Amino acid sequence: MTQKNTEDPSSQKNDSDCGCGGETGCRIEAVLSVDERGQMVLPKDVREKAGIRTGDKLALISWEKNGSICCLALMKADNLSCMVKDILGPLLNEQDRS
């Protein structure tokens, strides 16, 4: 008797997957075009939803796989510095106690 493969093909890991699949809460907000100067425009509704205002700094975060960047993300730089402080703060405090 031939055994049928009942595993869902969408649950199988693809070598080209970089780990930012739909189950992580990521979604496509907009599709951007890059002009000849390398500039992009974030749509107004996305900027408003993200609380991005004129003069705000954004951190560009990349994920690399097999020597090539596969994904890019933007984060408000203020949020990034807060995350770093949250992660490193307890470690630095622990070292100070030693």
From TrEMBL:
Biased composition (Polar residues): 1-13
InterPro entries: SpoVT-AbrB_dom, SpoVT-AbrB_sf
SUPFAM superfamilies attached to this UniProt entry: AbrB/MazE/MraZ-like
Region of interest (Disordered), ranges: 1-21
Transmembrane segments annotated in the record for this chain: none
GO molecular function, one term: DNA binding
Domain of life of the native organism: Archaea
Chain ranges of the SpoVT-AbrB domain: 32-79
Entry protein name: AbrB family transcriptional regulator
